[in-house]
């Protein structure tokens, strides 16, 4: 078929028929450029998110994802190749292919068809079992540094971060020191939500009346995006926050500046903060009621909003 098309281009004069020879070269060059650009665009999309981790948990999860993909491709690629080979070999004009309508069973083929998928599933299952326990969200990270405790409350529709040891709080902005494990305790006010920092690692659910735990760490200074990975109502699309990983010295300086700015997060201020809102800028509080998170997690502060109030 390619030879017939080539002869057709030679016979037809330029500007007539299907396509001129010069245009064919132009289209071929364009196709080659697109074939080169497409992988570059796909690789550029890996510069953020789970494929560009900046912490031990994220690195371990990317390794698991890569290993699982490689194992599955070891089966998928041969199957695709064999499918094309079978289609080519058993084509209508191949005299060497044998037509056997009465064939119905082969022990060797049955062994291959069932043994390889069974071994693959057993291997992937074992790998998932071991790594899921190693990366269990409540499991502390191995480190010489003492973990930084942070309490997280998912509001409608923003994130509240309380630093109980430092006595401050922020909204939609999380500042953490580099190389220090972060131990999160998380809860929600009204509906279930999902706390997720893709470049640092695992996501975890927040639920009203309950407390979940998560351990993460940033090993490089930088700014990372955090988001809600669980639809939670009208303002869900605006429920983002910023994670800033700084050096321990800069973190201590930021703590002093936050305390100096003042502002107290007590129960009355929390009641105003918990009202539904959209696309809220970051806030900070220099003082926090130490019992606030426990009160919210126990469900003592009721939050019930009508659809009109939520809008």
Q: Layout of SSEs?
A:
Elements: H1 2-11, H2 21-44, H3 56-89, H4 107-134, E1 148-154, E2 159-163, E3 168-171, E4 173-177, E5 182-188, E6 193-196, E7 204-206, E8 212-216, E9 222-228, E10 240-246, H5 248-261, E11 264-265, H6 267-273, E12 283-285, E13 287-288, H7 292-297, H8 307-310
Parallel strand pairs: 1-5, 4-10, 11-13
Antiparallel strand pairs: 1-2, 2-3, 3-12, 5-8, 6-7, 6-9, 9-10
Helix pairs in contact: 3-4
Helix-strand makeup class: alpha+beta
Instruction: Write the element-wise H/E pattern from the N-terminal end onward.
Output: HHHHEEEEEEEEEEHEHEEHH
Share of residues in strands = 15-25%
Q: Span from first to last CA?
A: 63 Å
Explain how this protein is built:
- By secondary structure, this protein is of the alpha+beta class.
- It has three domains: 35 residues, no CATH class; 79 residues, Helix Hairpins (Orthogonal Bundle), CATH 1.10.287; 153 residues, Sandwich (Immunoglobulin-like), CATH 2.60.40.420.
- It has eight helices and 13 strands.
- A six-stranded mixed beta sheet has the order 8-5-1-2-3-12. Strands 4-10-9-6-7 form a five-stranded mixed beta sheet.
- Helix 3 runs antiparallel to helix 4.
- It is elongated and about 85 Å long.
- The termini are far apart.
């Amino acid at each position: 078929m390619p030879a017939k098309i080539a002869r057709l281009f030679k016979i037809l004069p330029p500007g007539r028929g299907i396509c001129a020879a010069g245009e064919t070269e132009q289209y071929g060059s364009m196709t080659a450029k697109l074939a080169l650009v497409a992988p570059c665009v796909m690789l550029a999309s890996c510069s953020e998110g789970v494929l560009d981790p900046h912490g031990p948990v994220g690195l371990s999860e990317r390794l698991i994802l890569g290993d699982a993909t490689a194992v599955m491709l070891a089966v998928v690629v041969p199957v695709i190749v064999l499918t094309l080979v079978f289609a080519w070999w058993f084509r209508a004009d191949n005299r060497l292919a044998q037509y056997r309508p009465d064939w119905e069973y082969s022990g060797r083929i049955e062994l291959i068809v069932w043994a390889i998928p069974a071994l693959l599933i057993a291997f992937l299952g074992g790998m998932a079992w071991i790594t899921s326990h190693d990366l269990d969200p409540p499991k502390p990270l191995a480190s010489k540094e003492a973990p930084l405790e942070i309490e997280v409350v998912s509001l409608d529709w923003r994130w509240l971060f309380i630093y109980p040891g430092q006595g401050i709080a922020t909204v939609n902005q999380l500042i953490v020191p580099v190389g220090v494990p972060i131990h999160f305790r998380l809860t929600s006010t009204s509906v279930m939500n999902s706390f997720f920092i893709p470049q640092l690692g695992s996501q975890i659910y927040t639920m009203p009346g309950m407390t979940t735990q998560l351990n993460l760490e940033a090993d490089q200074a930088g700014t990372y995006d955090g988001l809600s990975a669980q639809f939670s109502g009208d303002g869900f699309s605006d429920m983002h926050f910023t994670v800033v990983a700084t050096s321990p010295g800069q973190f201590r300086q930021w703590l002093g500046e936050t305390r100096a700015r003042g502002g107290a997060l007590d129960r009355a201020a929390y009641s105003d903060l918990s009202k539904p809102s959209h696309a809220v800028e970051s806030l900070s509080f220099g003082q926090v009621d130490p019992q606030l998170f426990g009160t919210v997690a126990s469900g003592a502060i009721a939050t019930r909003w009508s659809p009109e109030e939520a809008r």
